[in-house]
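Recap from last week: sequence in, structure out.
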Amino acid sequence: MKTLLNRVVLVTGSTSGIGLAMARRFALAGAEVVMNGFGDPAEIDRLREEIAEASKTRVHYIPADLSKASDAQMLVKQAIAICGRIDVLVNNAGIQHVSPIQDFPDDKWDAVIAINLSSAFHTSKVALADMQTRGWGRIINVASAHGLVGSPNKSAYVAAKHGIIGLTKVTALENAKTLITCNAICPGWVDTPLVRKQIEARAAKEGISVDAATVALVGEKQPSERFVTPEHLAELALFLTTDAGGSITGSAYTMDGGWTAQ
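Predicted C-alpha cells:
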C-alpha cells in the first residue's frame, strides 16, 4: 500500500544498514525520499537510482557532515528547498567507538556525541519549524537497546543513545497538541557494517573466527540469538508514520530479541 504517497521523508545515515532499509521501505510506500550518508559517490548514486526505479518515486541524495551543527541544519534546509517540505524525519546516523572510560579518546567522545545525539537536535530543530507550519509530521529517532541499558566500554554511545530517548520525550511533549509525533526505535544487535566492525575486532582480539565472534556477541545479550534485521526495523518505522500511529508519541520501541526484557 502507498501509505506515504505525497509525503517527503529524510533519513540520515541512509547509505547503508538500517537507514538504507528504511529509505527503501519508505520509497516503496510512495514517499519522496532524501538519502544522506557517507560512502563511495558512485555506489551511493547506484543505490539512489535502484531505489527510485523500484519504487517509481523521486529519490535524492544530500551529503552532510553531521558532526557539524551547520551541516546538519543545512541538510534539512536543502531537503526542504528541493522537495518543498519535510513530512517525516528519521534521525538514524551513528558511529561507535569502544574503549574504557579512562582510555577513551576525547576526540572520539566528541564525535560520537555530535553524530549520535547532537545531529538529531539540529535536524529536528529545522524540521520541526517546517512541520509546525502544516501541523503534521513524524520524527523517528533511531536509538538502541543501549538507550535503555548500559554496557562496558561504550560510554559515549550509551550516553548518546540515552540522550536520544530524552530528546524524543521532550520533542513529543512540546508537540503533543498537534499531529506531530516523535518516537524512538531501540534495536538490539543488527547485522550492519557498524556491528560487523565490532565482530571483526572481537574475533581478532580473542583469536577466534568471525562466525564464533558473531555467536558470542549476539548470544551474550540477545536471548533470541538472532540478529534483528534492518527490514523489520523499517516496517516498524513505517507503522509509526501512519494514521494508526498518530497517538503514539514519546515512546521508545524495543526490537532487540529480548535483550532489555532480562
